[in-house]
């Protein structure tokens, strides 16, 4: 369900999280929501953490506002499959040409979606106090990506 139309990051952006991501609309991620089901249905809904849940795709803009939500997928289904369904549904989740959303490594890079370099330091805890500075361009990109993409994690926490 489309909730709002996000605005892309412009050339005049001064926000330290987003300044490196021109034309970005925000971030997306999947989240597990625990559910209670009859025992016969539970195996399909058991996620990788062992909980019985649905996998909810949520998309937010750069200001922590939800702009799209898709619910109902079994917890056993991976995030990229849920996104694929959102894109192909009528009316589906559509990313305007030239814009994109930040996503984590569970999603493929492609038109409209920018994930971090794989196999390169990425998560915010790896960049916390006492952590070494980025050693190369890929680590620097992943650090900036993680800090901006964190908007979706904060949206789930509010």
Describe this structure in words.
The protein has 158 residues and is α/β, with parallel strands linked by helices. The longest helix is centred in the last third of the chain and has 21 residues. It is 22% helix and 22% strand. Strand 2 and strand 3 form a beta hairpin. Strands 3-2-1-4-5 form a 5-stranded mixed β-sheet, with helices on both faces. It is globular and about 50 Å long.
Helices and strands, with pairings:
Blueprint: E1 24-34, H1 42-45, E2 53-61, E3 66-74, H2 79-88, E4 100-102, E5 113-114, H3 137-157
Parallel strand pairs: 1-4, 4-5
Antiparallel strand pairs: 1-2, 2-3
Describe what is shown at a glance.
This protein has 158 residues and is α/β, with parallel strands linked by helices. The protein has helices spanning 42-45, 79-88, 137-157, and strands at 24-34, 53-61, 66-74, 100-102, 113-114. It has a five-stranded mixed beta sheet, with helices on both faces.
